[in-house]
Design goal:
Elements lengths: L2 E4 L7 H10 L4 H9 L7 E10 L2 E10 L8 H9 L6 H22 L14 H17 L3 E4 L5 E2 L1 E4 L2 E4 L3 H6 L12 E2 L3 H8 L1
Parallel strand pairs: 1-4
Antiparallel strand pairs: 2-3, 5-8, 6-7
Length: 201
């Protein structure tokens, strides 16, 4: 059995996941082609670089794009994914499952419906690229089982679209209900909603 293990010692985010999957052998050009097929309103480019963090090497993937102010709804993102002529049906299904889970939790946090909830940070180009890229990469990796270490959330406060917020952010906390957490008393956001949604899905 081919197994993938998420070692989430220092948390998880969308770009951390994408970097790890590219480092595991997924070609950046394949992910870029899929991203281009989403027909995002502004061009975005995936750039991978080898970096060192605390003496260890890693691959960091950045999503480069022009600034935007778009606040998308779930149906906008689903339409982008469904409109791709590059993504396979399995890749589309996984990407939509991740976004639907986020929509459910955001709706719960804000006391609204999935149809009305605005995707702020998670609806931005870089988060769309991270989630769709991760869905494609998991499929291409061909693993039969995925395991995940307990996840640390961090602590303190961050600024989000709705103002100052405690860590973990409300959507992150909802996404991690039932997920084993690690006690890692570091100030700052270690796990983002995008990372939490990928891990939970």
């Amino acid at each position: 059995m081919k197994l993938a293990y998420f070692d989430t010692l220092s948390g998880i985010s969308g770009d951390m996941t994408l970097g790890a999957l590219v480092d595991a052998g997924i070609e950046l050009a394949v992910l870029q082609s899929a991203l281009d097929s989403l027909k995002l309103p502004r061009a975005c480019t995936l750039v991978a670089n080898e970096v060192k963090r605390h003496g260890f090497r890693a691959t960091k993937v950045d999503v480069q794009h022009e600034p935007e102010q778009a606040h998308r709804h779930l149906h906008h993102i689903v339409a982008m994914i469904d409109g791709s002529d590059v993504l396979t049906s399995g890749q589309k299904e996984l990407a939509k499952r991740i976004f639907t889970l986020i929509g459910e939790k955001e709706a719960r946090v804000h006391g609204t419906t999935m149809q009305k909830v605005h995707f702020h940070e998670v609806g931005a180009v870089d988060s769309i690229a991270d989630i769709v890229g991760a869905a494609i990469a998991w499929d291409l990796l061909g693993v039969e089982r995925i395991e995940c270490a307990p996840i640390p959330t961090g602590s303190g406060f961050i600024e989000i679209a709705h103002g100052r917020c405690a860590v973990p952010a409300p959507a992150t906390a909802e996404l991690l209900v039932g997920v084993p957490l690690a006690d890692f008393p570091v100030e700052g956001e270690l796990t983002t909603p995008t990372g939490a949604a990928i891990a939970a899905t």
